[in-house]
Specification:
N-(1-d-carboxylethyl)-l-norvaline Dehydrogenase, domain 2; Rossmann fold; alpha/beta; 2 domains
């Protein structure tokens, strides 16, 4: 049986603002099965607190952004939680989802880690005609960072160009976004020995995904989860006597007024 702490479908909790006791009570009533967490990132801490500790291993997270550090801080180590990297989207309510299949990845980009409910997640998606791969580390960790690179880079470059669409970023500002992706990827690889990309192939893969969702708008939002991790790297390196590995990213955030250059 599946339980959802969600805004969508017919989940047992339809809003992250509902009382913790309600969520906890309903989850206790369903003593087994995955718990799909489909809320905004800023609700995650309260949602986790509302779930009994013995059910934490059943959590399935579907949020965008750099979740791993947050989950490491808010869950016991070693739990087989499930994380889904979503590359499908619904343009508007009532329309079928657009799957993340591209000309470089025709098998689809959506992936789930090898958590407790990975097989169930894949079954749920594939029986709905959506692609889903199960990836083990370090392949999943690299895919996780790749999704974060796409969000951070394409949203920032789009925001710098009057909030143009993702498709416009890919078609009109490709050199700029590829340079940004390369800087961000280099910073990620420097901090994670198991993460390695062939930069040209990486840029092509992310551009192909951008073409598949060309109508998406761009904006820098949920900073803590999306661009924030790269900004933290920019803050740390000067203190260690090294140059900012992502100067284009830092300059773009400064131009948008996200922070002052004096902070770096």
């Amino acid at each position: 049986m599946t339980t959802q702490c969600s805004r969508v479908q017919t989940g047992v909790v339809n809003s992250p603002t509902q009382s913790h006791s309600v969520c906890s009570l309903l989850i206790h009533a369903r003593a087994e099965g995955p718990i799909y967490v489909c809320t905004r990132n800023d609700a995650l801490k309260d949602i986790i607190a509302s779930v009994p500790a013995d059910r934490h291993e059943d959590l399935v997270f579907v949020q965008n952004g750099a979740l791993v550090p947050f989950l490491d801080q808010n869950l016991k180590p070693g739990l087989p939680i499930t994380i889904l990297l979503v590359y499908f989207a619904v343009a508007k309510k009532g329309e079928p989802p657009l799957d993340g299949k591209t000309d470089t990845d025709p098998e689809g980009l959506t992936a789930v880690n090898s958590g407790k409910w990975a097989q169930e997640v894949r079954w749920r998606l594939t029986t709905s005609d959506l692609a889903c791969q199960i990836l083990r580390d370090p392949e999943f960790f690299q895919a996780y960072w790749e999704k974060n690179l796409w969000i951070a880079a394409y949203m920032l470059v789009g925001a710098l160009h009057d909030g143009c669409t993702v498709g416009d970023v890919e078609s009109k500002h490709r050199k700029e976004v590829d340079e940004l992706i390369t800087q961000l990827a280099t910073a990620v690889a420097a901090a994670n020995a198991d993460v390695r990309w062939e930069k040209l192939l990486l840029c092509d893969r992310l551009a192909a995904y951008a073409r598949s969702v060309a109508h998406f708008p761009t904006a820098v939002k949920e900073f803590e989860w999306r661009n924030g991790p790269f900004y933290v790297t920019a803050l740390a390196t000067p203190a260690a006597g090294r140059p900012d590995p992502c100067p284009q990213h830092t300059a773009g955030l400064e131009k948008l007024g996200v922070f002052s250059s004096e902070a770096v």
